[in-house]
Amino acid sequence: xxxxxxxxxxxxxxxxxxxxxxxxxxxxxxxxxxxxxxxxxxxxxxxxxxxxxxxxxxxxxxxxxxxxxxxxxxxxxxxxxxxxxxxxxxxxxxxxxxxxxxxxxxxxxxxxxxxxxxxxxxxxxxxxxxxxxxxxxxxxxxxxxxxxxxxxxxxxxxxxxxxxxxxxxxxxxxxxxxxxxxxxxxxxxxxxxxxxxxxxxxxxxxxxxxxxxxxxxxxxxxxxxxxxxxxxxxxxxxxxxxxxxxxxxxxxxxxxxxxxxxxxxxxxxxxxxxxxxxxxxxxxxxxxxxxxxxxxxxxxxxxxxxxxxxxxxxxxxxxxxxxxxxxxxxxxxxxxxxxxxxxxxxxxxxxxxxxxxxxxxxxxxxxxxxxxxxxxxxxxxxxxxxxxxxxxxxxxxxxxxxxxxxxxxxxxxxxxxxxxxxxxxxxxxxxxxxxxxxxxxxxxxxxxxxxxxxxxxxxxxxxxxxxxxxxxxxxxxxxxxxxxxxxxxxxxxxxxxxxxxxxxxxxxxxxxxxxxxxxxxxxxxxxxxxxxxxxxxxxxxxxxxxxxxxxxxxxxxxxxxxxxxxxxxxxxxxxxxxxxxxxxxxxxxxxxxxxxxxxxxxxxxxxxxxxxx
Length: 613
Ligand code: F6R
Fold this sequence. Notes:
Number of strands: 27
Keywords: Aminotransferase, Cytoplasm, Glutamine amidotransferase, Repeat, Transferase
Largest sheet: 8 strands, antiparallel
Distance between the termini: 10 Å
Subunit structure: Homodimer.
Function: Catalyzes the first step in hexosamine metabolism, converting fructose-6P into glucosamine-6P using glutamine as a nitrogen source.
Shape: globular
Low-confidence stretches: none
Bound molecules: fructose -6-phosphate
Structural class: alpha/beta
Subcellular location: Cytoplasm
Number of domains: 3
EC number: 2.6.1.16
């Protein structure tokens, strides 16, 4: 969470920083700010609210600087306000710093500084770290670089920090541990960012900075060192991403664009991997750890949020097809509960961003205990991808909307491939089922396109009918249960309507008490082995006057007749069906959020990349 940008070069820094912050706003939008080195002084501008509020407050000022840093904040320590916005000045005003992460021992550092007479203008852990660095610099009479190195040895927590020093007009000092930092190499210029999107317009050559590395960045020089002051050769990589991928392309919101991109993104996830004609699956990551997978006592899937829902569905699919025990864990619980891990465990980490702090630490811990890590990650070069022993990228392209849509379906596509591949290697799947599932998987992009083409207007109308509801219940069974959870999560995230996902049969054990004529109940009721059972559950809701909205398979007259509203998807094998049934639920949430006048791309209190625990 929080987005950071930096620029050193010969062009005006301010527009580059503002443009970069807008691209990173998905990481947090509580406040925004920039610090600029004018050659003589450090100027800080910051404002509570989105980047546009910062722009307005700076409008008309003549900002001449070719070096600067910028920050968009997701608040951790201290409420969203101008005062707590980054960048912060050090006590002397000679340093300015931005920070993404959490300094866990900030209270200890703060009390030491308070004893020395320091006072603080903000409530942030970041201002404490900055003054701690400055205190070391003054007391040791050393360079900023040296002071950062010394300070970071005492810091507990996660950080990316970028610092400007009044005495170093052409330099940014940067360091990272646990939060992401990418440096783009331009023509006598360098661009810094939490991800590569702010620099895409200027360069495709980037260096991903690792934990415990410190960068000294000047227009024509990038020096990388470890905390022991030894130089490291920067590893320059080429970005495989186009600028258009991070723009709205005529859609009102990124979320809508990303929902409509899914025929292509699912196709991209399958491309080069699933050969529907030869019925083969090529997944080099699975091949690399095939011996581990064959010998595995169990697979543990760790993830958070929407990615956890993808993991939950994978549990059903892998257990069914591969006959391997699967446990699905919330990364935040798994990392703290001293789980029993051995070198026979394979951990699958599922993450869009590849930077989610809980997932990252969970796999770090498991790796130390000998487990093999398989990463299913969207962002290329991200921390989870780099920590994994093997993996498969999801190829969904940049996901900017805070609520995950195309990344989820890409995760599912890859998880299906993994399950089919492992089942084939293990010999636990009949040829006929393997052929049917791979053929159906290959049809998904076309079927998703059909849903988008035929259902969009219908779903808009359903959304209009229920936009004022106070609560929603989402029910599903079997493979569709994780989709009920995902549908509920999507709705609450972007419409702020309370929504609960539940296994349809479990509803009788409590949630049914909520049902009355005002409660819309969304059933994920595509044709599957539980169909008759879910029809009974629909009857139970109808008997209590609940409003039933159902996702149904084409031609299902039974549920269509029972439900108040239906959203239809093509008929496909029940194991693959969730890839289709989630699409109407994404659209339903989107249109309800829009009808309620909300900023669906940037829902309140959320951030895209949760790099704090
Ligand atoms: C929901 C959503 C979040 C993320 C979660 C994990 O729409 O986006 O629940 O799924 O924060 O993030 P990643 O997948 O980046 O690890």
